[in-house]
Design goal:
This protein is an alpha/beta fold. The chain has helices spanning 35-43, 58-67, 85-98, 118-135, 181-190, 204-214, 216-226, 231-235, 244-247, 269-279; strands spanning 2-6, 53-57, 76-79, 106-110, 113-116, 139-143, 154-161, 169-176, 193-196, 201-202, 255-258, 262-265. 36% of the residues lie in helices and 20% in strands. Helix 3 runs parallel beside helix 7 (216-226). The longest helix is centred in the middle third of the chain and has 18 residues, at 118-135.
């Protein structure tokens, strides 16, 4: 498995500290470490620096180097401009293909969340590698919700796969894009709904085949780049769009792994404070300070 840390956003809800030049995943939020550092160090328990890749932009490149000084600079995949996750993910695949890694499984690892316990995430990477090599299809992650959450996507579990140890793996019966509350509540009640928690995995060749079929306006510039054309010129040709422009069309052919770890998303300062308080129950708060 090739882990690819993705970090290009900002985290506007954590303004004013989180800005384009100091986005939230590079802020020292947890015990003086950034979320990027924590995730990179977790990956380093299994992978050598030269086996890890980072997808980002030129504004954040120096922050990547500062937070992961042993990462080879040639392993940093730089978007020439921001064009959303569809083109950015395609660039990851094209970059790896150009390095001769077209048939190697890779997984996108969001830099702005915590995964606890980390050892379970490493186990999931091993499982994902085996699944992709065996099944030759897209995999992604999901979490079992206790109640209907609005503003997110859902994956409805289909047939269970029973040969994956203690980590739950299912075929995907249906994808719900930003479902209505009524529909979400019904699926959550039935116990078949998983909130879509990303962790996309493919091989570069498999992903680019999907792009060729479903988004040729992304595919052709990427292949031009693979074949030697200027990346900046080709990337500018790609329309902006989410990766779901591709994945929502093939989710019923995909597999979803129920994440075997807590997926902690820090979207606001309140969520950070809550996490720190839970980890330090004896922490004394002084009025006007935290």
């Amino acid at each position: 498995m090739i882990p690819v840390i993705i970090c290009g956003g900002v985290g506007t809800k954590m303004w004013p500290e989180s800005q384009p030049t100091s986005p939230k995943h590079f802020l020292p939020l947890i015990n003086g470490k950034s979320l990027f550092q924590i995730n990179y160090e977790l990956l380093r328990t299994k992978f050598k620096p030269e086996e890890i890749y980072v997808s980002t932009n030129s504004v954040q490149e120096e922050l990547v180097i500062k937070n992961a000084p042993d990462l080879p600079k040639e392993n940093i995949i730089l978007e020439p401009e921001l064009r959303n996750h569809g083109p950015a993910t395609g660039l990851v695949a094209a970059f790896l293909l150009k390095k001769g890694l077209g048939d190697e499984p890779f997984m996108l690892v969001q830099a702005d969340v915590l995964r606890e316990p980390g050892v379970k995430f490493i186990e999931m990477l091993d499982l994902g590698d085996n699944l992709i090599r065996k099944e030759k299809r897209l995999i992604t992650g999901g979490t079992k919700p206790d109640y209907a959450i609005m503003g997110i996507d859902y994956l409805i579990e289909g047939e269970k796969m029973t040969s994956m140890g203690d980590i739950g793996v299912s075929k995907v019966d249906k994808f719900l894009w930003r479902s209505t509350k009524e529909a979400a509540e019904e699926y959550v009640k039935d116990g078949k709904a998983l909130t879509h928690a990303n962790h996309y995995g493919w091989t570069p060749n498999l992903l680019l085949q999907l792009y060729q079929k479903l988004k040729p306006e992304w595919y052709q510039p990427l292949m031009n780049y693979v074949n030697g054309a200027d990346l900046t010129t080709e990337y500018a040709k790609m329309p902006k769009g989410p990766i779901e422009d591709v994945t929502q069309n093939v989710f019923t052919e995909a597999l979803v792994v129920e994440l075997p770890f807590a997926w902690i998303d820090f979207g606001t300062w309140e969520s950070v404070a809550k996490y720190i308080k839970e980890k330090n129950p004896n922490l004394i708060e002084i009025e006007g300070q935290n």
